[in-house]
């Protein structure tokens, strides 16, 4: 299956073959270092970026929910084409900066745990099912990999913004 071009970077960042293991391993290995960044570091915009770290985490939460929904629909053999979503519209309607970082991160952990459990319970063969989302063909496997790569992409940016932490 062709790779959805705008999302290729995320797919490249997630070379793991098992979506379940990649989602789980990322949760165990990568999430802890971002858990306690603190209000002061997460509430400001670090130039040249346009979002606070709280907003980045909120964006990742929203994106994981959208991609998980797509994966569920396709896994259940519902090939109804699904629309894209406008991350800037989502951001404009969210209140991420008004929430404590620890609360946002806790929500992110809960969302990821739900994603992990969903992928763990998919029947054999489900990951190869396909559908259309954002005008691109996707397999359930690609959606899982994209979620892992999307988080890695944003973790890399946060690490650049904050330097060694």
UniProtKB/TrEMBL annotation:
Q: Which InterPro entries match?
A: DinB-like, DinB/YfiT-like
Q: Which residues cross the membrane?
A: none
The record places domain DinB-like at 34-158
Query: What superkingdom does the record give?
Result: Bacteria
Regions annotated as coiled coil: none
Q: What is this protein called?
A: DinB-like domain-containing protein
């Amino acid at each position: 299956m062709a790779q959805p071009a705008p999302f290729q970077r995320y797919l490249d960042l997630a070379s793991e073959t098992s979506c379940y293991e990649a989602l789980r391993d990322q949760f165990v290995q990568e999430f802890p270092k971002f858990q306690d960044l603190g209000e002061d570091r997460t509430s400001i915009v670090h130039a040249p970026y346009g979002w606070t770290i709280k907003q980045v985490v909120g964006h990742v939460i929203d994106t994981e929910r959208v991609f998980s929904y797509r994966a569920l629909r396709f896994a259940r053999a519902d090939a109804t084409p699904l629309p894209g979503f406008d991350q800037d519209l989502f951001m404009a309607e969210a209140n991420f900066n008004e929430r404590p970082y620890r609360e946002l991160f806790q929500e992110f952990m809960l969302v990821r745990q739900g994603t992990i459990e969903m992928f763990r319970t998919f029947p054999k063969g489900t990951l190869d099912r396909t559908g259309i989302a954002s005008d691109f063909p996707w397999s359930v496997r690609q959606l899982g990999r994209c979620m892992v790569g999307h988080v890695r992409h944003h973790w890399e940016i946060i690490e650049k913004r904050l330097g060694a932490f």
